[in-house]
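#lab-general

N.A. 3:47 PM
ok so I finally got the sequence cleaned up, no stray characters, all 201 residues accounted for. can someone with queue access submit it? mine expired

B.Y. 3:52 PM
send it over

N.A. 3:53 PM
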Amino acid sequence: MKALSERMHQFMVHKLGLPADDVPTKRRYFYRKYGTTLRGLMEEHRIAPADYLAYVHNINLHNFIAASPPLNQMLAEIPFAKAIFTNADTAHAERVLNVLQVRPHFDFIIDITTMNYKNKPDPLAYQQALNMLGVSGEECIMVEDTPRNLLPAKDAGMTTILVDGQSSPSLGIDYVVPTVFHVGHIVKSLLPMGDNGSTIL
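B.Y. 4:20 PM
back already:
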């Protein structure tokens, strides 16, 4: 995330010509008002989102992540349909999943372009994702590492799991786990084994 953040900063300086000292304040403003830097740049600077996404995601993922056999095993043991719901684009999501070597576990990728650049935590993005999956919120479990992105999920009826060792359950958050490797145990405890009618986002 630090590397991606640096690429966002560079885009705003080198592509838009904004003063480097102003970028952190501008990004905090975009994050609060729009949910993402991308959405803020689209609304207030009319950038081409595809150019931004290509620039920001142009990093060597192998410097940061690698194949994860424990993650692969955990996902294999969860007997429910799984979907990626991301503020990134499909190309980046595919690269991440392929480096982790867990791509076969995911039936759907719902990305920022699919949502017509609506992004988490915009409630409309969540409803659009549910519509695309053809399920209700009550049939879904959402796993996230950002607390505010779980609030609209809870409002839509989803069970919510936060991956964050520093937090505790609160409004909009049903379960908190310290690492993603603890998600499997929670998920399997929520629904009967063999029930494959639910979706994990």
